[in-house]
Design goal:
The structure holds two protein chains of two kinds. Chain A is mainly α. In chain A, 60% of the residues lie in helices and 0% in strands. Classes of the chains: A mainly alpha, B mainly alpha.
């Protein structure tokens, strides 16, 4: 099986991975309850795993009505093979286009060794998606993923990249306002800003411009969601504190909608009645492109599901893949919240294994790294940032910053 | 806080290669000259405190703006004919304001500085484009805001109106301005260097963020502003020297601007006589006829850094040279003065100069704020203290979480 482009340098980095770290982490993930709840690596791993698993389990029924899912599966709680959208036979556990965006962001963060901005992501897109890869790429991502990548790859008079500033790409490409991109696909942005809610918001506003024009409501939802996700990495985070963080950073124009969704969760809990209550609000199609993939619906439902299941990862994912409409985006978004709070050690290991194995068999994905390898890349960047922060603080203290202004 | 690689190809910013190249150009010429001259910064018996450097930076920015304003866009010859050597403050007229502005009043560019500073002081931390625009939105008194707009540069008035309307996202306001490659990020973004003192990579990040309020994304202003504010951020280090500040400008100069920066610094490194230096700088930058031709970022950054280097960072010499050079006297003197003031501290600045600026500010009815110079320094200093504390806490939380 041919490997996707851009893999070889990842293999080398795997070789250099600290073996002590690998051994420690391997032990903690295998045992369901061994890893302490506040373990940051476990949370980063859990966040990504929740999103990948939600993506892979949900995509098999994406676009199905709630009735059709019930008719076919009763309650869906396994991975199924799928081939819709691209007419390509994906094995059970294969992730979809939203996860491709997540992986590209993980690669960009690893490449830079730091937080990223829009230009960094554009550069990674250009490097990992050369022309030879485009046909394969078209079998796993949407047209706007292809088009934003093509614009990022445009070279100038001196063959230089960046002819179209990355911060304008989302304005010039037809990437509909208000889509859920910054909720469903920005987990790496939140994770590299673990415990730094405002950093997560700031990077959402920068990187998001590669996908959306700045007038998009997607930024508002993305800001609230990624702040909540960054907050979930705190050792003392709880379901309530994650929800409250989202409310705190929700712009006034979107906050009532979020509160309404949370009220539905409190009223109905983890039942089909909750699903049906949301159908009263979000339903139908016709006219608007990607009608079930807007941030307003996905973010509201994701937080509601997270609340209704008290942050239980399995329950959250199973609930949301049976919701109908954009099941993969919803399950990815909800799964990420639950996974970040609970940690990968609370996620069924065979779920993670199924997704990783399917990735290895996927000829069209931009990265065949395991979820854990992506998490390790981000974790190492967080560790490096901590050292840099401490060095800066120490330097400023030695420069007399504690002295009063006089 | 690693260097922010903003070029999409070519050598990355902050490479050891870049550092060595720039050290070679100016280091050889200036090393050893650091101890010459009087009232210099590097007296080990009197290290400048961080606050003194902050105060010196703000004072330099305001003094440069106020002394340069009366001769803004004049030629070198016109200035010499009227003043001989200009080295004091004079009253002047501003477009749109009937009364003469008293001597010591700062110019429209300094208003940009003040708004950013006020946003930082309100937040007590670094700011984003959104924070700056929210600061304008927060000015509820329409009359006061109109007066502030009059005190601002004509360029800024529609821009401030767009921001305060709340209808245009902060990050694309600058896409709607008709003048690109302008010097705002060089001559008015000193508060960004201050809140990122000693952290040039993050100063660069903030230039790219807040800059979007003022300029479209293609603007050379981002590249020059990044280089300049990185240099200024380094000037706040206790061990800063002219050489280290210039080296930082080079380290954070990306592929697009590196050649022009090197050319300007090479002129300074030859240690020419002042008249020769004026001639060479004027030959490099003499475009006219096109609107805002005199306020391009390349000119402001190159002149400010070259003057700072050639004057060996001496505050008075830097200011006087810049205001007599002609063209954007206020902008160049404000930028160069900030560098010199940051390096040598306010205690190296004639107190009378600061007093004149503060007296004029108190009587200025067309300004973002009538605060004295020291108040800006104090406010941003406290914001920096808060930022450092928050970083300390964040690092501690992450470590306790297993990072």
């Amino acid at each position: 099986m041919t490997k996707p482009d851009g893999k070889s340098h990842q293999l080398r980095r795997r070789d250099l991975l600290n073996s002590a770290l690998a051994a420690t982490l391997a032990g903690s993930v295998q045992t369901a309850s061994a890893a302490p709840a506040h373990n940051l690596f476990d949370k980063i791993y859990g966040c990504l795993a929740g999103s990948f698993i939600g993506s892979a389990m949900g995509v098999a029924v994406e676009g199905f009505s709630r009735e059709k899912i019930a008719e076919k599966y009763g309650v869906l709680k396994t991975f199924e093979p799928w081939d819709l959208w691209w007419n390509f036979p994906y094995v059970a556990g294969s992730t979809e286009d939203g996860t491709e965006r997540v992986k590209q962001m993980c690669l960009a963060i690893a490449e830079k060794g730091d937080r990223i901005n829009a230009a960094d992501l554009a550069r990674t897109w250009a490097r990992t998606n050369p022309d030879e890869r485009m046909e394969r790429m078209k079998k796993i991502v949407t047209e706007f993923d292809v088009e934003t990548t093509q614009v990022a790859k445009v070279r100038g008079y001196n063959n230089q990249l960046g002819v179209v500033p990355a911060g304008y790409i989302g304005t010039v490409v037809n990437y509909t306002h208000g889509l859920n991109t910054m909720v469903r696909s920005f987990m790496p942005i939140a994770m590299v800003n673990a415990c730094d809610e405002e950093g997560a918001i700031r990077d959402t506003y920068d990187v998001g411009r590669i996908y959306h024009p700045l007038t998009s409501e997607g930024f508002l939802w993305g800001a609230a969601y990624n702040a909540a996700l960054a907050h979930a990495c705190r050792p003392d985070a709880t379901v309530d504190s994650v929800i409250n963080t989202a409310l705190k950073y929700a712009h006034p124009s979107i906050r009532p909608e979020l509160e309404r969704g949370l009220d539905i969760a409190r009223k109905y809990g983890n039942t089909t009645k909750m699903r049906d209550a949301f159908y009263e609000i979000y339903d139908g199609s016709g006219g608007l492109p990607f009608h079930y993939s807007y941030a307003v619906e996905i973010a509201t439902k994701a937080f509601a599901a997270f609340l209704a299941t008290n942050g239980n990862v399995e329950d959250t994912i199973i609930m949301t893949v049976n919701f109908g409409r954009d099941t993969d985006c919803l399950a990815a978004s909800a799964g990420a919240l639950a996974g970040a709070l609970a940690g990968a050690s609370k996620i069924p290991p065979d779920w993670i294994r199924t997704v990783d194995e399917a990735t290895k068999k996927n000829p069209n994905t931009c990265s065949q790294l395991t979820i854990r390898e992506h998490a390790e890349d981000i974790f190492k960047v967080v560790q490096k940032r901590v050292q840099e922060m401490k060095a800066y603080v120490a330097f400023m203290e030695s420069a007399g910053i504690s002295n009063p202004a006089a | 806080m690693s260097p922010d690689k903003n070029t999409l190809d070519g050598p990355s910013v902050g490479s050891p290669h870049g550092r060595r190249k720039f050290a070679g150009i100016v280091g050889g010429a200036l090393a050893g000259s650091i101890v010459l001259g009087d009232r210099l910064w590097a007296d080990p018996a009197q290290p400048r405190s961080l606050f003194d450097k902050f105060y010196g930076c703000v004072a330099g920015a305001f003094i440069g703006a106020a002394m340069g304003a009366p001769v803004a866009l004049w030629s070198e010859e016109q200035i010499a004919k009227k003043y001989g050597t200009l080295k004091s403050f004079h009253p002047f007229r501003s477009e749109g304001i009937a009364a003469m502005r008293p001597a010591g009043t700062t110019d429209g560019g300094a208003e940009q500085f003040k708004h950013i500073a006020l946003a930082i002081i309100a937040k007590q931390d670094r700011v984003t484009a959104e924070d700056l625009v929210n600061h304008w939105i927060g000015i509820k008194d329409d009359k006061k805001f109109e007066a502030m707009k009059l005190g601002a540069a004509p360029f800024d008035r529609p821009l401030m109106a767009m921001g305060r309307s709340g209808l245009i996202p902060a990050g694309i306001i600058g896409t709607h301005v008709p003048y690109s490659h302008q010097n705002i990020t060089v001559r008015s973004f000193q508060p960004i260097a201050m809140i990122n003192a000693c952290d040039p990579a993050e100063a660069v990040r903030d230039v790219h963020d807040v800059g979007r309020v003022y300029q479209p994304l293609h603007s050379d202003g981002y590249h020059w502003g990044a280089s300049f504010q990185a240099a200024l951020a380094m000037a706040f280090r206790p061990d800063a020297t002219v050489d280290s500040v210039i080296a930082a400008a080079g380290e954070y100069a990306d592929r697009k601007i590196r050649r022009n920066l090197k050319r300007a610094l090479a002129v300074a490194a030859k240690q020419p006589e002042p008249a020769q230096l004026r001639k060479e700088l004027t030959e490099m930058y003499c475009a006219k006829g096109v609107k805002c031709a005199e306020t391009y970022a390349a000119e402001a950054a190159c002149k400010a850094l070259a003057i700072f280097a050639a004057m060996k960072g001496n505050f008075e010499d830097t200011i006087v040279f810049a205001v007599n050079l002609g063209r954007d006297t206020a902008g160049v003197a404000s930028a160069a003065g900030a560098l010199a003031g940051a390096l040598s501290g306010a205690s190296a600045i004639p107190a009378e100069w600061i007093r004149t600026v503060d007296d004029a500010a108190r009587r200025n009815n067309y300004t973002a704020s009538q605060l004295p110079t020291k108040a800006y320094a104090e406010g941003i200093y406290r914001a920096l203290q808060n930022k450092v504390q928050k970083l300390k806490q964040l690092a501690a939380v992450l470590e306790s979480a297993g990072a």
